[in-house]
Amino acid sequence: MKAQFLAGGGVADVNFLKLAGPAAEGAMAWENGPSLQSLPGGNGFANHYKARFGGSMA
What we know:
Blueprint: E1 6-7, H1 14-20, E2 28-29, H2 42-53
Organism: Paraburkholderia silvatlantica
InterPro entries: Peripla_BP_I (IPR028082)
Protein name: Branched-chain amino acid transport system substrate-binding protein
């Protein structure tokens, strides 16, 4: 099966990269963080994103 590997933050670790080696190429991981509105410049970024891509990120 040919597919892109997507996972939560648990694989965002150097050990994952060491163990997976070249097979990790193209893998994606994400980690939840604070809301965009609570970050400095977050509202400006959200407005820029909406203007550029025509929708919200949520």
